[in-house]
């Protein structure tokens, strides 16, 4: 069991402003709609202690959006996550990918880094990029052990 980190002092307004700026949205209301959709979808992907702790570290409104969706049987791939959200919101895939990156990038800067790493470890490869992080596991998973070069 992991230690639960107390909720940050960050407000919903500060998070939304960061998302509005990052996503180049014209209004905070537009950023709010995008954030709600992305967090609702993300809430279906994360389970266990990470789900509880992530909700605790989010500002109240964001935590409600994240927590209201029941987790699925298993998380979608990163591509399928964006595609499903695009279909649910009737938006093009590329625009939805932009929205997801704007919201999850801000989320990555809001929550504890150790928690972020645990969340990413729970999700299929590809999500790190959605959170604005390097996906260092992709190459490691595909490289045969006999081809690994050891540092001298």
From TrEMBL:
Pfam family, one: DUF2267
Annotated Gene3D superfamilies: Uncharacterized conserved protein DUF2267
Protein name from the UniProt record: DUF2267 domain-containing protein
């Amino acid at each position: 069991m992991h230690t639960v980190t107390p909720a940050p002092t960050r407000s919903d307004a500060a998070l939304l402003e960061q998302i509005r700026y990052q996503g180049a949205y014209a209004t905070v209301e537009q950023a709010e709609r995008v954030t709600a959709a992305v967090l609702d979808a993300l809430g279906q992907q994360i389970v266990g202690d990470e789900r509880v702790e992530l909700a605790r570290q989010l500002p109240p409104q964001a935590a409600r959006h994240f927590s209201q969706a029941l987790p699925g049987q298993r998380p979608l791939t990163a591509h399928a996550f964006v595609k499903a959200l695009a279909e649910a919101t009737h938006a093009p895939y590329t625009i939805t990918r932009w929205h997801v990156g704007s919201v999850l990038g801000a989320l990555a800067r809001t929550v504890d880094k150790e928690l972020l790493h645990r969340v990413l470890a729970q999700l299929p490869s590809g999500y790190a990029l959605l959170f604005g992080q390097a996906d260092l596991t992709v190459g490691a998973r595909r490289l045969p052990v006999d081809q690994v070069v050891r540092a001298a």
